[in-house]
Amino acid sequence: MRKLLLTAIGVVCMLATFAQAGYVPAKENLAQRQKFQDMKFGMFIHWGIYSILGDGEWVMHNRKIPYNNYKRLADFFNPQEFNAKEWVQVAKKAGMKYITITSRHHDGFSMFGTKFSKYNIVDATPYHKDPLMELAKECQKEGIELHFYYSLLDWGRPDYAFGSEIVDGKPVKGDWDSYIKFMKDQLTELITKYPGVKGIWFDGDWERRKVNWHYDEIYALIHKLNPAIMIGNNHHLAPKPGEDFQMFEKDLPGQNHTGFSADATIGNLPLETCETINGSWGFDIKDNNYKTTKQLIRYLVGAAGRNANFLLNIGPMPNGKIQPEFTDTLAAVGRWVNKNGESIYGTRGTYIDPQPWGVVTAKGKTMYAHVMDKPAEAYVFIPGVKEKVSKVALLGNGSSLKFKQQQEGIFIYTDGVAWDDADTVMKLTVQ
Fold it and tell me: What pLDDT does residue 18 have?
């Protein structure tokens, strides 16, 4: 028992050391959290020199390509078809309110101009331009928020020493202090040089559970540089002090179909779930496993009904173009969002638990029942509705629906309803 107690105390001390202990979010941060929850729908972009090989963003690791050989990809990464305006318009037409893009992935290549590594798109490629700066400016112009994905894991840098044993919170073969400084320097660039940045999306913590990531320093630095910036970390665990939103990978909050969320206790922060539009994060020329418009609408609705944002990923081609299979589907999703957006944007999903037929979102004195699976009965039952409902109507055409409210909830009768194959939205007005 004493050993278990000491172990527990040690774990608590480690968490306090590795996170921003005593963090109190600034008023700017709290306001940004509310805005983040209101936006509901974002675009995730995985793009880098790995796109050239057309085998996903893990190709270096999966194919066991030596780092010095892999680095040669930079010599012919020249995305002449990249157009920031086109990318932002694709997101806007889909109804997306923010973009999260990989500034640096696990291969260590920086997709932005940085003074702290020559291994970047400006200095190491024939392209010699900074696409993230162009994207940041276009996002700011079009009212789209920009967040940066940033990898904690690095397969190639000697100071990170990938594969090294971890002793006393550091890799034995690396120079951990050097690596931590490098990350802080790059994060400072991303936050101070690029306009309109409102989020940092960390990934790779799971590769080294026993290392001291110096989150106390890193998180504090970010919040000092810009208190409004929201920090998230894809560590698949409960939120740590200093984090401002919690993300879930390829699963809705509370689910664990993929195995990533077994230990992901849901905290009290804003929530976000990310998923791919096909089966890959980065461009994969073999991947034709495209999700349908219906699947994506239901994922968006399911996330909103669980009080989470939906971050939908695309992997652009190495030339900088977004493949038409993605843009066509996103446009179709956008048409649905354009008609039904009031039931998604600005809503919260904490009022009613998910039901067998779907979910409920709420905003002010209005609730929205998202019926994705038609009930066997001739009614939709929403349990636990205590407020007096004065009207129920289909959001799509405004036609009124008969209903009966009792102590246990509300029954909405569905005779004559023309069901939407993806999601039939019923609008409930509360007195």
Answer: 63
Q: How far apart are CA 150 and CA 205, in angstroms?
A: 11
Query: C-alpha distances in angstroms, 130 versus 112, 126, 135, 192, 318?
Result: 5, 12, 9, 15, 15
Mean pLDDT across the stretch 336-341? 98
C-alpha to C-alpha distance for 389 and 404, rounded to whole angstroms: 9
Residues 6+ apart with CB under 8 A from 1: none
Query: What is each CA distance from 124 to 57, 120, 151, 234, 254, in whole angstroms?
Result: 19, 5, 19, 29, 43
The first and second tokens of residue 302, run together, are 């399911």
pTM of the model: 0.95
Average confidence score pLDDT of the chain:
95
Assigned token pair, 96: 């997306």
CB-based contacts of 204: which residues, under 8 Å, 6+ apart? 106, 151, 152, 153, 234
Residue 9 reports pLDDT greater than 90: no
What are the backbone angles phi and psi of residue 71, rounded to the nearest 5°? -60, -20
